[in-house]
Amino acid sequence: MIFKEHHSKRQLGATPEPGGQLAGGSQSRFVIHRHQASHLHFDFRLEMEAVLKSWAVPKGLPTEPGVRRLAVQVGDHPLDYIDFTGQIPEGQYGAGTVEIWDKGEYELSYKGDDRLEFTLKGNKLAGDYVLIHTDDKNWLIIKRRPKQA
Ligand code: MN
After folding, report:
1. At 140, phi and psi to the nearest 5?
2. 86 alpha carbon to ligand 1 midpoint, in Å?
3. pLDDT tens, 16-71?
4. How many C-beta atoms surround the C-beta of residue 80 within 10 A?
5. What are the pLDDT digits (tens) for 115-124?
6. What is the widest separation between alpha-carbon atoms in the chain?
7. pTM of the predicted protein model
8. Residue 148: partners with Cβ closer than 8 Å, 6 or more residues away
9. Burial call 82-110: b when 16+ CB within 10 Å, e when fewer
10. What is the distance in angstroms between the CA of the first residue and the CA of the last residue of the chain?
């Protein structure tokens, strides 16, 4: 729905691009802002296509496999917002306090219009997650069970 680009399958060795990104998925950054606005929530942001794709997650991302949490997509944010902390003034949209709750890198393993699969490598959160678009701006974020060795 929001992802208009479709990346055709590329063959390793067929282009001069670094093989690691093609084979293993790219490493990009993520942040989870703890946002004490009129309602406390967490803003999950993934660096993707030169912006921060963003979701407001009222209860925060799950830490236990199988738990699903609502994630409401909000507008893209500029990349430099990834380091933002501080106060959004009264009267402004999202007025309140923004802190960084977790940050790190993630590896994208699948990207479809209505589904993203990725591995988070943060300080607090780590492991495989999936975001599934359900309707309108609503997605579910689920922590996946560790892969069997
Ligand atoms: Mn917010």
Report:
1. -115, 135
2. 12
3. 444 334 335 568 999 999 999 999 999 999 999 999 999 999 999 999 999 999 99
4. 8
5. 999 999 999 9
6. 54
7. 0.82
8. none
9. beeeeebeeeeeeebebeebbbbebebee
10. 34
Q: Which residue has the tokens 């209505």?
A: 114
Label the pairing between strands 115-122 and 126-135: antiparallel
Q: Do 29 and 106 contact (CB within 8 A), yes or no? A: yes
56 alpha carbon to ligand 1 midpoint, in Å? Answer: 6
Question: What are the backbone dihedrals phi and psi of residue 23, each rounded to the nearest 5 degrees, phi first?
Answer: -80, -40
**Centre of ligand 1 from the C-alpha of residue 81, in Å:** 12
Q: Are the CB atoms for 109 and 119 separated by under 8 Å?
A: yes
Other Cβ atoms closer than 10 A to 124 = 13
CA distance 126 to 106: 9
Query: Can you give the pLDDT at residue 147?
Result: 77
Ligand 1 centroid, distance to 66 Cα (angstroms): 25
Tokens representing 51?
């912006």
